[in-house]
Amino acid sequence: MEPFLRKRLTFLSFFWNKLWPTEIPDDCIPRYPGPDPVTMDLDPDPDPVSSQPGSPSSTVLFTALYDFTARCADELSVNRGDKLFAIKEEGDYIFARRLSGRPSTGLVPINYVAKATHESFSTQPWFFGGISRSEAQQLLLSPSNQHGAFLVRPSESSRGDYSLSVRTKAKVCHYRISKAPDGGLYIQKGQVFPSLEELLAFYKANWKIIQNPLLKPCIPERPPERDEWERPRSEFALRRKLGEGYFGEVWEGLWLNMVPVAIKIIKQADMRLDDFTKEIQNLKSLKHEKLIRLHAVCSIGEPVYIVTELMRKGNLQNYLNSPEGKTLSLIHLMSIACQVVEGMTYLEEKHIVHRDLAARNILVGDDLTCKIADFGLARLLKDDIYSTSSSTKIPVKWTAPEAANYRIYSQKSDVWSFGILLYEVFTFGQCPYEGMTNQETIHQITRGYRLPRPNTCSPEVYVIMLECWKANAEERPTFFTLREKLNSIYRRVYHSFT
After folding, report:
1. Are 433 and 464 in the same domain?
2. Residue 264, annotated as binding a ligand
3. CATH code of the domain in which 279 resides
4. Is 250 helix (H, G, I), strand (E, B) or coil?
5. In this predicted structure, what is the pLDDT of residue 2?
6. Pair (362, 481) in one structural domain
7. Which of 323, 360, 363, 315 has its CA nearest to residue 343?
8. CA–CA separation, 291 vs 310, rounded Å?
9. TM spans, by residue (predicted)?
10. What are phi and psi of 469, to 5 degrees?
11. 356 flagged as catalytic
């Protein structure tokens, strides 16, 4: 259970370290064990071999088959050939202590390692201890390898023997390496060698005997990276519906029955599936304290789940309208504005356009922490779902004129929306252009109408709003400039209160 939780919930590593300290005393390092008996296959028709998951053991050593770079604090970086002492084996990982170089502990994917043997050739580039005949064939025929590539592997059908697999143009030939009673090794009876190294040296020089040259050891392929963000939908339980918006329903839920999360449910019928993978990759790569943190994605099957951290106080629009929100002071309102512009400056630096910046897409947590949500999701929705032709869907009152009329979205259209968000903040969640329809709003904006200054808003903040609402998008400020101006105002307000 420990490696499973450490692997899936890496953001709680500080909690797991308290429950399961990773330090072990030096005297826990075991002696190097003898070879692990293995039963493998026979040329030419191997029987399928089933493998059972390993159980915790204090005497199991592994050898790293590939280089692996740790992706979080709980994982352990290893190089091919490193010796590892397996503290625990469970699921897709082993929790191990590295015995090569500087001792260290951590999680290593099980498909990056194989049980170690004491033979000297176990770390040779041509020896592959953990693969079957079919896997050897697939590996040798991969683009990384050419004619003459070869490897040696344990025989799948005869315990103690080996198999030599050689690529010859577009096919692979397999040769049984048998063990003689005196421990010698041979492919042909009467031609016995004391070690695999000497056997291979002989057939490299006399390759015509087996009619295939041994030119270069097989190049190992890294196992395919698993998308750690993709999780089965069964790991999540929906508890309470929090709301519904342009991007689907939002639920409060539990991950693995223990971690509170927010789950956004999107129907695939409403999505442009070609854009989904690319956009989700964008979400995974964005990390900032003022952006909602993505935890997981369930994109296999229907519906799609986008799982994020849970913000207890809900969205900013509802919070500002609540009894607690209505008691916020000017310094609190300025703090909210500064937090949002901080996150938007980061998105600007990453060249990400939000497209739906509004108080409803800002989430509020404890201590009035504000984080931006739903950045980039508008691009996932089909045109007929999120478009100007559907007045009930597109958020016209938050949308810049060029985006509402011509679908021209940019960072400067986000700046317009930020001005509307400032209006929401300083009116405690009031709807902009109240009493106007979407068509009337667009008409009035085109004629030059702008929202009036809220009573709680200082003239200098209102000047910032008007700058955000300039008709010419190029004349609007950048988020970097807005951040500097708002932070300066906040500092003056803060010092006046204290």
Report:
1. yes
2. yes
3. 3.30.200.20
4. strand
5. 59
6. yes
7. 363
8. 12
9. none
10. -100, 25
11. yes
> CA dist 411 to 108, 221, 473, Å?
41, 42, 9
What residues contact 255, with CB distance under 8 A and at least 6 apart? 9, 235, 236, 261, 295, 296, 307
pLDDT higher than 70, residue 79: yes
| Domain range enclosing 280 | 233-309
Q: Is the pLDDT of residue 122 over 70?
A: no
Query: DSSP characters for 163-226?
Result: EEEEEETTEEEEEEEEE-TTS-EESSTT-EESSHHHHHHHHHHTGGGTTS---EEPPPPPPPPP
- pLDDT per residue as tens digits for the range 462-489: 999 999 999 999 999 999 999 999 999 9
- 284 is written with which tokens? 């995974």
pTM of the complete model beyond 0.70: no
For residue 395, the tally of other CB atoms under 10 A from its CB is 21
Give the dihedral of Cα atoms 386, 390, 396, 399; nearest 10 deg: 30
Residues in the chain: 498
Residues 91 and 152 in one domain: no
Of 155, 182, 217, the residue that ends a domain is 217
Q: What are phi and psi of 478, to 5 degrees?
A: -80, 165
Calpha distance 72→480 (Å, rounded): 31
Active-site residue, selected from the candidate residues 74, 82, 356, 414? 356
Q: C-alpha angle with apex 307: 304 to 308, nearest 5 degrees?
A: 150
Query: How many other CB atoms sit within 10 Å of the CB of residue 363?
Result: 25
Q: Which two tokens stand for residue 446?
A: 């085109």
- Find all residues with CB under 8 Å of 492, minimum gap 6, and list them: none
pLDDT digits (tens, 9 = 90+) for 419-465: 999 999 999 999 999 999 999 999 999 999 999 999 999 999 999 99
